[in-house]
Automatic annotation (TrEMBL):
The lineage of its organism: Bacteria, Pseudomonadati, Pseudomonadota, Alphaproteobacteria, Hyphomicrobiales. Its EC number is 2.1.1.297. Residues 123-199 form the Methyltransferase small domain. Methylates the class 1 translation termination release factors RF1/PrfA and RF2/PrfB on the glutamine residue of the universally conserved GGQ motif. Gene3D superfamilies: DNA helicase RuvA subunit, C-terminal domain, Vaccinia Virus protein VP39. GO terms for biological process: methylation. This is Release factor glutamine methyltransferase. Transmembrane segments: none annotated. One of its GO terms (molecular function) is peptide chain release factor N(5)-glutamine methyltransferase activity. Substrate binds at residues 195-198.
């Protein structure tokens, strides 16, 4: 029988943490806090300042259900329905990858160039495989003069990206485009950014359960060697790049040499290489 959850905020948090701890989850403290705060509408400060504050019974039932989903392996942000990325709250849907902190490296890698380009008059950004819109919307938040097109082959992902753009106040500067990479793209861009699927097909089964079972396969599977999307991007980007524009790609931390070779063979020069917060190779920026 499930434990009865207390109705006072402090004890409720402790009980939630104990349940997740007992299920041997990686971050029981953080997950318990996120779940309790989200469904009770309370803040960390309230939990500290007023731990005996009573939580509504309906919220307790929702917290109970969320804890059950979490202990059966569903990622905490799928349960909440959103994830923070570059300071923006992005809604998720079954068709979108959960944006990861590592991808903020891609935003940081092109930001100085995007800002400088915007100062000169215009900055058009193409975000290939936009998912929730994470990369495009983060860049729009940091470069107020920029406009962005988010491309995805998934209709569901594009609907989520458009909703995120609308809710964050970027709708007038963000366009969602359904396209198989460049197939329907037109015009020229100062920045072409992509975090494409890069897992080799045969490795998908060996991914962590939370990734394999909850992130869409379309967002993960990069083909036989995981490099298929890079070959397409390297072969076609030049036709959509402004003179002196930049192409920036995220990749798996063991793929730096292969990605470099693919872009070098297509005539690009390396303009920058960036590691993620864990010190792994993560992003390369190219110019023609
Ligand atoms: C790794 S996810 C990245 C999502 C988002 N940019 C992020 O960083 O959180 C890759 C994205 O590429 C999209 N995608 C896969 N194949 C595609 C294709 N052929 N053309 C356009 N987008 C594609 C997927 O739907 C998914 O949204």
């Amino acid at each position: 029988m499930a434990d009865h959850l207390p109705e006072a905020l402090g004890p409720l948090l402790r009980a939630a943490r104990a349940r997740l701890d007992a299920a041997a989850l990686d971050s029981p403290n953080l997950d318990a806090r996120l779940i309790v705060e989200h469904f009770s509408g309370t803040t960390r400060t309230q939990a500290i300042a007023d731990p005996m504050r009573t939580v509504d019974p309906r919220a307790i039932a929702e917290i109970d259900a969320a804890l059950k989903r979490r202990t059966s392996g569903e990622p905490v942000h799928r349960i909440l329905g959103y994830r923070e990325f570059y300071g923006l709250r992005l809604s998720l849907s079954p068709e979108t990858l959960e944006p990861r902190p590592d991808t903020e490296t891609l935003v940081e890698a092109v930001l100085p160039f995007a800002k400088a380009t915007a100062r000169e008059g215009a900055c058009r950004i193409l975000d290939l495989g936009t998912g929730t819109g994470a990369v495009a919307l983060a860049l729009l938040s940091a470069v107020p003069e920029a406009i962005a097109t988010g491309v995805d082959v998934s209709e569901g992902a594009l609907a989520t990206a458009s909703r995120n753009a609308e809710r964050l106040g970027f709708a007038s500067r963000f366009k969602a485009l359904r396209s198989d990479w460049f197939a329907k793209v037109s015009g020229r861009y100062h920045v072409i950014a992509a975090n494409p699927p890069y897992i080799p097909s045969e490795d998908i089964e060996n991914l962590q359960d939370e990734v394999r079972d909850f992130d869409p396969r379309l967002a993960l599977d990069g083909g036989v060697d995981g490099l298929g999307p890079y070959r397409i991007i390297a072969a076609e980007a030049a036709g959509f790049l402004e003179a002196e524009g930049r192409v920036a790609v995220e990749f798996g931390h063991t793929q730096r040499n292969e990605v470099t070779e693919i872009f070098s063979a297509a005539g690009y020069r390396l303009a920058g290489a960036f590691c993620d917060l864990g010190g792994n190779d993560r992003v390369l920026v190219f110019e023609l």
